[in-house]
Design a protein that fits this description.
The protein has 186 residues and is an alpha/beta fold. It has two domains: 35 residues, no CATH class; 134 residues, no CATH class. It is built from eight helices and eight strands; from the N terminus they run ααααβαββββαβαββα. The chain is elongated. The N and C termini lie far apart (94 Å).
Amino acid sequence: MLRWSGAAALTIVFVLATNEYVVKSFRLSASSASVLNPQLFARLGYYKSDHRAAAHFVAKRFQPGDGIITFMPHIFEYYSGKYSDYSINTLLNEKITYDGGREHPQYLDKFLGRPLIRSVDEFRDVLTRFNRVWVVTPLDPETSMLSPDMLSFLNGHGRVVFESYRQQVLLIEGPQSAASTQRSAD
């Protein structure tokens, strides 16, 4: 009897130790505010993308006439308070919605219904509508979020202006901005 109770107690300890609600290891953090509202509420040492820093960077530098393209518009809008004009998914590896009831039927982001950019041609079309375009995309070398031709286009036409943990912001000057710069140089 004693032998089985020891094994049962040891099993219960192991099972409870794997439950983050029981162990509450997030209470060991330095900030007392994080005890009630932990940032990740997950395993310590595992970090997700830093959406907040990228969103704040774009929000501070946004000017009228700029466009914003994000991979996750709902997260960007939450942290920045700015409206994202488009969503981007050139691999079509996330759930998307096709809305045929609009004047111009198109694919939409699943969270906020933002028009979805699916190719380089669609991206070029969007560039003609803005002076500058901010592109906020995740950096994840293990699973690329953009197609190779889109990555090549972004690297050739844009410049990385901000980079944080698994998140980057590219700035691309649109044709309208290039035309105004050309006129001022003449």
